[in-house]
Amino acid sequence: MSSLQDYFRAQVRWRREKAEEYPDDERNAQSAAALESLAEYVNSEADGGIVAELKKHQFEGRSLGGAETGRAVSRYGYGYPVNSMSHEAFLEELLVLCFKDAYAYASEQEGFDPTETLYPFEIAAACRDVSLPSGYFERRAKGGSTESQLQAWVDELVLEEAPDTIPPSWEEDR
């Protein structure tokens, strides 16, 4: 059993407790069933691909990503039906949120990235409190851009936010 599956099962237990606490609200039971199905889906996937990428953002098997990621997991299937296609899309969404959370953490912790998933130029931008748009993290997570394309985008954002600042990639050339 993967630790990612264990994490989702822990969320299932929490949702089941909420379902017992609020028996008239079916959404908690619905979310517990969705998370249970997600845990089974993760177990059926090989430890490659998106599951392997998500594991890089897991901390001691007890949490995944940060606040945004945790909020998304806690709300999965809450008031809406899910299926296996929903699971794959949700795992992709979680990876985007994990990158956002890693970047936010690096911004708050002077560039420290416990996931070791951020590029050096992203860490440098985080240290400068450069805001990266959601679209950036979507491209990053889905592989829609090369590292050099992402770096050029970050350089542009650094220059927009602080025109007198040298972008991280330019400092590397010195």
Report what the structure shows.
The chain has 174 residues and is mostly helical. It has two domains: 109 residues, no CATH class; 56 residues, no CATH class. The chain contains nine helices and two strands, in the order αααββαααααα. It has a two-stranded antiparallel ribbon. Strand 1 and strand 2 form a beta hairpin. Helix 1 runs antiparallel to helix 2, helix 5 crosses helix 6 and helix 5 crosses helix 7. It is elongated, with a radius of gyration of 18 Å.
Strand percent estimate: under 5%
Describe the sheet with the most strands. Answer: 2 strands, antiparallel
Task: Supply the helix-strand structural class.
Answer: mainly alpha
> Order of strands in the sheet with the most strands?
1-2
Provide the domain count.
2
Total helical elements: 9
Mean pLDDT, to the nearest integer, reads: 89
Radius of gyration: 18 Å
Helix and strand run: HHHEEHHHHHH
Shape: elongated
Percentage of residues assigned to helices: 55-70%
What is the number of strand segments?
2
| Residue windows where pLDDT falls under 50 for at least 5 positions | none
End-to-end separation: 48 Å
